[in-house]
Amino acid sequence: MNRDAEPGTAERTRLDKWLWAARFYRTRSLAAAAIDAGHVRVDGERAKPAHGVRAAMRVSIRKQAVTWTVDVLDVGQRRGSAAQAAALYRETAESLALREKTRNEQKVARAQAITHAPGRPTKRDRRRLEDFLNEP
Question: Could you list the pLDDT tens digit for every one of the 136 residues in the chain?
Fold first, then answer.
């Protein structure tokens, strides 16, 4: 892609394009919006969508409550299959452990959440509620 690159210089691509090619975001515009919002950091620093990404950089991506910290292995110029996208980066061990911990915490929270029966309360439910509310 870099036509007039000198020998020995690393190939680069735009950050938004790399996030899109690595399948972290569905479109480049969503990737650019996340970068502008500060959800993506390169080597611990905020970056702009046109920031050049090359191999050996560390990128942190935060989506909702989940954070990925990945090391860039290759710069993809095109969006390919999921297998090709996975070859562009390697997730750090700390990030993998943190994501697993977060996933388990969310699973426990969902299991402990009070679930209500859908629809109207039955006559029996209404009577129980009235009895509970009328207790001294």
Answer: 444 444 445 689 999 999 999 999 999 999 999 999 999 999 999 999 999 999 999 999 999 889 999 999 999 778 999 999 999 999 999 999 999 999 999 999 888 877 776 788 899 999 999 999 998 7
133: tokens are: 């509310």
Task: Note the pTM of the prediction, 2 decimals.
Answer: 0.74
CATH number of 13-113: 3.10.290.10
Q: How many CB atoms lie within 10 A of CB 118?
A: 5
Break the chain into its structural domains and give their ranges: 13-113
What is the chain's Cα-based Rg?
23
Q: What is the DSSP letter of 77?
A: S
